[in-house]
UniProtKB/TrEMBL annotation:
Family designation: Belongs to the Integrator subunit 7 family.
Compositionally biased region (Polar residues): 36-48
Residue stretches making up the Integrator complex subunit 7 N-terminal domain: 74-356
Originating species: Prunus dulcis (Almond)
Domain of life: Eukaryota
Protein name (record): ARM repeat superfamily protein
Amino acid sequence: MELILKAKERIGLLGIIFMEGESETPVSTNPPPPTQVHQSTPVQSAPLPSTIGKRKPTEMERNSAACVMEWSIELEKALRSKKPGRSLKAISEISPRLQQLSKEPDPSPAVYHLFDLIPGEDKLFSNVIILRLANAFEFGDKHTRVCIVKAFLFEYKKRNKQKEYKGVLCKTRVHMQAELLRRVKVVFDSGDVEDRALALGLFGCWAHFTKQSASIQYLVLSSLVSSHVLEVQAALFAAGCFAELSDDFACVVLEMLLHMMSSPETLPAIRLAGARLFAKLGCSQSLANNAYKASLKLLLEFSDEYYQVAMLVSLSKLASRSTILISQQVDLLLLFLSHEKTLQLRATAPSQVILLIIDRITILVKLVLDLCQTDSVEFQQVNCLFNLLFLVIREYPDLHVLVLDQISVLVKSLSYMDDNLVVTTETDAFVHHSVDLKGEKSRIIRSKLLFKVYRFLVAFLENLTEAGAISTEVFDKVKLLVELVCQSNLFECYTYVLYSLLLRCQIIWGNMVNASEGSRNPDRNSGISLDNYSMKHELRTIECAKRMLAEKNNWPAYRVGVCAACQGDWLTTTFIFKQLVLKVRSNSCSCWMNSLVQFANSERKLELLLLPKQGLETHKLHLTPSSNDLGCQDAASSIKQHIYSKELAAAYNGLCSSLETLKVDDVKTGHIFYFQHWFLSLRVKVIRAVVDIVKILGNIPFDQDNTTNNGKVENLMVGYLMSLQKITQISLQLKRLAREFDLVTTSFIDMDKKSSKIISELAMSCSLLAFCTGFAHYIPSLFKLFLIVVWEF
């Protein structure tokens, strides 16, 4: 009673509306006038802030429980308004709010206290919103009913099918089920074909509580044999929603569906909708097996291409529920890869294989989390399936967008797999700074699973680079995936840093920088540039690394530093190794860490030569300047050459120090880093050659054509001959270094494929640099192009 009185006090006269659903009489004895609809552009509501999984919540940010009363009042005012289009706008705005109410966990007592709410008040007002929408559906016009069905469809499609639904429309949260069903059934009984179809759509969205009504079940089944295509399609949708939740109902639907699909009188549109319904008949494994066998027989009975594609998709979804069916489905999909099939069917087969693999991984991940064992068979199967997925995507790189989308779904389901493991809202995080979800063991299991996903993504991005498929779309999807992981507090800092490194991966970042520089779009500088985003992202990554080091996770921090070096994030690498130098105790480890710090710092200096820096802009020089421009650019070019020469010299000195540090360790401990010595010595020689080339070419004057004094000409020729001799010696030296890089590859036969490829690329770069060196001496217009090649080496 206290809840009712306080609710009425808060909303004044509108409070009477909240209790109307308890009576059997309609909300209003006189139906409201039909809403006037004007053709206008659809109104998009402002996106609502997601409050799940934020690691740094804003204090006092209101969640859906605190806002639901205001939403209810706004909806009521809009539905009563006579302003054209306002009610439709309010209904469209309520759809994301329903979805937010569904995905957020129940508020804790601290949240109720923080916002001065009565326990259960949020559920009361959410029921009021649903009742108001049902009332508007009963008395509204056609446009209003369509808008209401779209609102509930939006909430339905956003549900996580991998876990039990406990959202705003589940049977335990809806308290006026009979009243809601009565109002919709009135429309079904008294309306035309379109009204009946809309009512069936609502019954499907409300399946969690409508499936218990025998009369509604009969209504749905009887509509399957209607003579109207629209009504049958809506009934198939509702039947699918019911079949996902009830095994008995699904068996009845399967029998009716088989009769409908095999009938020659069935229209193609209905047959296509029926083919899609098979995917929802997997409530139990036995039912999935029966539905798979039945749909397999129906697959080849009709030659319609769209029908066969829909059947293949449904068969794949059914097969994902059984290990036995997966192998059969893969064999079936391979048959559709033959050239005799249409292009669409051939394109469908590999995509369905990918979906099968990821669906199976998702099921196994749930089993691994339930077992909480990394040595289980299921855990090993996950690793095998990721290897299989990589083999498939390597053959079909055009499906990379599908893979990234499905990996995001997998990571999201891994983050929120169990309701007991769902993180708190932002408000809860403000009140309770940390929540122990299911113990440290579950956290470790999740981090290990995400590490497997990370390793797959690294190999996946490398494969895309080889295929030339890296694009802004890939970058955006990887960025969203990284943000998804970093917004959850279910994982360790180790996981956060690893995923953050994906955005600093040289493969993806290098492609994005080149695309940005090559763009001629005048608006490319609007918003946040890639360089600014890179700096901000690096700072966030280092913050995560700081927390990891503060927690004394030294060994994981070292592994992250190694991964950062492999991804080319030299700033993070240098920071981590500098901190670890202070923590190591043995002389050998100390020398090794110091050597890594010096090496990473040098590589960072070389990296900064390729990208613009904050505070010191380094502009690329024009490739082929005209003779008239050379004079006015001499001063600027001289300054830039000096800056680059200085940076190259600093990088060279750092590499020398890194090599000397290893040699000191050899003397002190007797441990010899054979490979590291060899590689660093070659790297030092290459950078030394680059420094010498830049210095020599920077001192060569290219304006000899304008010189008339014989003495000056003679001096110029002497300078040319001396520089030519030096350039020739450096060219031969680079040629020898290329051979020595090849020797490194053949000497260490146990080297991994990626490292071997990198060293082979260095050998090729040395050969190319040796070949191009002499041309810059003879062709003045290629001088600055050569400098760019040198700097990018």
